[in-house]
Write a structure and sequence with these properties.
The chain is of the alpha+beta class and 387 residues long. It is built from 13 helices and 16 strands. It is found in: Cell membrane.
Length: 387
Amino acid sequence: MRSVSFSANNHVTLLSGGAAFFPALIAAIDSAQVEIYLETYIFAEDETALQVQHALTKAAHRGVAVRLITDWLGTGRVRTSSLEQVLLKTPIMHRVFNPWFRRGVVRMHRKMCVIDRQLAFVGGLNINDDMYSDDGERLRLPAPRWDFAVRISGPLVAMVHDELEGQWMRLGEMKLLARWQQFKRARSTLRRAGRGPVVAGLVVRDNLRNRRMIQRAYLHALGHARHSALLTSPYFAPGRKLRRALEAAAQRGVKVTLLLGVGHYRLQDAVAHSYYPKLLKAGVNIVEYRKTALHAKVAVIDDKWATVGSSNYDGLSLLVNQEANVVVRDAEFSHKLRQQIEAGIADGVAITPVDFINTPWHLRAWYGTAFFVYRFLMRIITIGNRG
């Protein structure tokens, strides 16, 4: 198992929500001269997505090599089909990840883009309007979806490019020898590099080379936490190791706070609630974000370590899906992200042990049932994927 490979002298800008992310992404696409790789779980058919699609089309028509990767399940069967028909009339090259579950249940849940090998974006935002729910019902949200991405320039961009280029090659017609050579090249290009502003690394999760890389990054950071740990996720169902790491940090005096999304899926909320009693007993602070849809997968530990990306704290993200996070070791960046998370906590509702003491028995039974159903399904889904 490889450790995180860091590079120094990067410039990493935090982008808060679609209002910051999409103008930055479209401006970068408009400035592209040679190539664009864009990978997303959802590529919707709304005004925001069509603006991105139009920018990609313009770039392709002026001679930029545009390669788009979308997930079949995330984007949806109907939208994937219509998107393919539209893109056939343009120079854009499009490949779809795991159509009709041909590779099992694994999904490509990453959100990344690289422009001319000079500029990269990594985060949690799909290509969709952040004023509407992304569950297929397209309900208008009370406020923009709460999410983050980063814009990167510097040595780390090369690692993002290599990851996207490798993904593109694997999804195409690629012979076994070429796959093996690409696999070796990906291993040899990862290295620990230097000191200086800003030190950052790309951590990815797949079922071949990096089966537990993201989880290990979290475990390492929590294991070295001394003062505080702020973690945010819309879907919360941690495995035993991550749960124990959270509890151990709190028990040795670290102020651990979880900011969790609720209200998206009833079963998911029940599963998350089943973890609350032990975490609260260990001293972990839990805050539920109810202002709007929380989609952010971010964390800050001791104002020295921060991460932004696509990975939730659940079995699908940590054991099944392809995910991508950026880890940043920089006080200034960590402080900015901490301020954003603290603002989210201020908008949330704190959960206390008393809340669960007074929970009706039938709700406690529902939480326990949801947990066992979830664990049973995850054991089936992760057969052969546990690493």
